[in-house]
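Supplementary Text 2. Reproducibility record for the structural model of the 227-residue chain.

All settings were left at their defaults, and a single model was retained for analysis rather than an ensemble. We include the record here because the model underlies the residue-level annotations in Supplementary Table 4.
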Amino acid sequence: MGARAAEAGRPQLSDDAAAYVRSMIMSGQWRPGDSVRPEAVGQALSISATPAREALHVLRVEGFLELLPRRGFQVARLTGQDIRDLFEAHALISGELAARAAVRATPDELDELDALHHELLAAAYRKDLALLEEKNHAFHRLINLVADARKITWVLTLTGRYIPTRFYSEIEGWPQATLHDHSKILEGLRARDAEAARAAMHDHIANAGDLLARQFDKRAAGEQDPA
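Retained model, structure tokens:
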């Protein structure tokens, strides 16, 4: 029974491992050419190497990793434009959900979004970046729930695989941009203006991608210039 239960849980463990590795690559924690060992991934997540290895094979197909003879898995080359493209896809879907939420949000839900935004402001003021990331996630999650579009939200989870779920606070300029962008999103929602909410959300996600892409471009330029 124990082995069977472990086998049943393996797809979830593999998904978790893939999400972890994607996040490390997308956030720039792991660089192109870095070795990625399934044993190390498993140790980091307290899982066995088997689901971790399955995750690495999935990421090789997705283009995040390369599998080299006698050298194992390595982080593949990722450019700033790659990051912008991934965030643009996510931004288009997020914008549609924000437009739906602008039409459907109740006064109580709008008040809850306002409260989350003020908690964001407080976290930023205290420089509590971990709490800022947590409240940012809650803000977006609530908008997606209010939109009440299950199939679109499901597609968002697919593009969301390629958006880092951690380390946002380490992106230069992200905390400040988030506070400004969320204010614009709230304005659209409060006004029941679907197109304004769509544009504000799209620009917010695309802006985050551009900030992250700039870091990648800057790092890549530095690595190519030994001087």
